[in-house]
Design goal:
By secondary structure, the protein is mainly α. Helices cover 45% and strands 0% of the residues. It has 2 helices and no strands. Helix 1 packs antiparallel against helix 2. The longest helix is centred in the first third of the chain and has 20 residues, at 2-21.
Length: 74
């Protein structure tokens, strides 16, 4: 079952790219494959490509320290 979930996730990302490009023919082909794997959309698909992870906009990250380049010997 996990393999089907991975396939569906990949097809959804692929579909979002084709939809953003306006390639309706390819979107319908991907929709056929999604239906083959038993996927039925629960909400609008026009929210763009989804990556594997997403950054939390409210989360603060530690600032990187600036390191001076080494001085030339001489």
């Amino acid at each position: 079952m996990a393999r089907d979930d991975n396939m569906i996730a990949g097809l959804r990302r692929e579909r979002a790219v084709y939809a953003a490009r306006g390639d309706d023919e390819r979107v319908s082909q991907v929709d056929e494959q999604l239906a083959h794997y038993g996927y039925t959309p629960e909400h609008a698909e026009d929210d763009g490509p989804q990556g594997r992870t997403s950054a939390d906009p409210g989360k603060k990250t530690a600032a990187k320290k600036a390191v001076a380049p080494p001085r030339p010997k001489g």
